[in-house]
Amino acid sequence: MNRIVIVGLKGGVGSTTVTANLSHALHLLSKETITVDLAELNLLRLHFTMDINNDDGWAKYFLNNKCWSNAGYESPQRMRFVPFGTLNSSELEKYCAHKEEWIAKLSGELSTVGMDAEHWQIIHLQNLEHNQRANREILHSADIVLVVINPEPVSYYLINSNHVNFGELKGLVGEENKIKFLINNYQPESEVSQDFRLVLQKELTSTLLPVSLHRDTTVIDSIANLTNVHTTSPHSQADRDYQSLAFWCVTHLYSRSNDKRGEYV
């Protein structure tokens, strides 16, 4: 089993969109995927053609002492996903009181689903501006933690300030080399976007993925149609970017697994 955890540096960087489209790109590479939303906004489902009036999700089942797997759905492209669920104020208060316990339980139970190497779990977390200690079990069990950033001044400022506790994130993940930064919404026609990508490449070095996701109107079109970019526009720049990202994830984890086998030879 391979587990990729995706988290935004801040709100608005596009981590939800990245999660959905990476999942679909891996699916196109014949990987068995299950995508799980741990963000309380419950927006990931909108990329999987789920009825916007359907408030079902794993958190609602935990609230009612029921099995989370009953909240599993399948998109028209036959991709499995588990939404967070839409909670009212009293439900959200109860969830927050048990958040760390329930996420740890969910992490453990997800670890028993699909143990073969072709099974991929893509897990979407709330942005780093939120407390990540509740996600400690998910983060520690991850094979890769992708931190989504934008090539612009605010992302750069947050990376170099104390507003985002990267020390805590590294401690929760356990292995610093599992954390990778991913540039989203890159605009090559913008001098500012070009400059900040160059600066980020210089400062983040090997922790920055070699793949950058371009800003593409296809992404907006896909969200409007409650689906993914490949379904909306299979020959777009965005679709090519996500294919490249999926291929990087597969080859990176394949090489990591080979390195670990070599340690025992």
UniProtKB/TrEMBL annotation:
Gene3D superfamilies: P-loop containing nucleotide triphosphate hydrolases. SUPFAM superfamilies: P-loop containing nucleoside triphosphate hydrolases (SSF52540). Pfam families: CBP_BcsQ. InterPro entries: Cellulose_synthase_operon_BcsQ, P-loop_NTPase. This is Cellulose synthase operon protein YhjQ. It comes from Photobacterium profundum 3TCK.
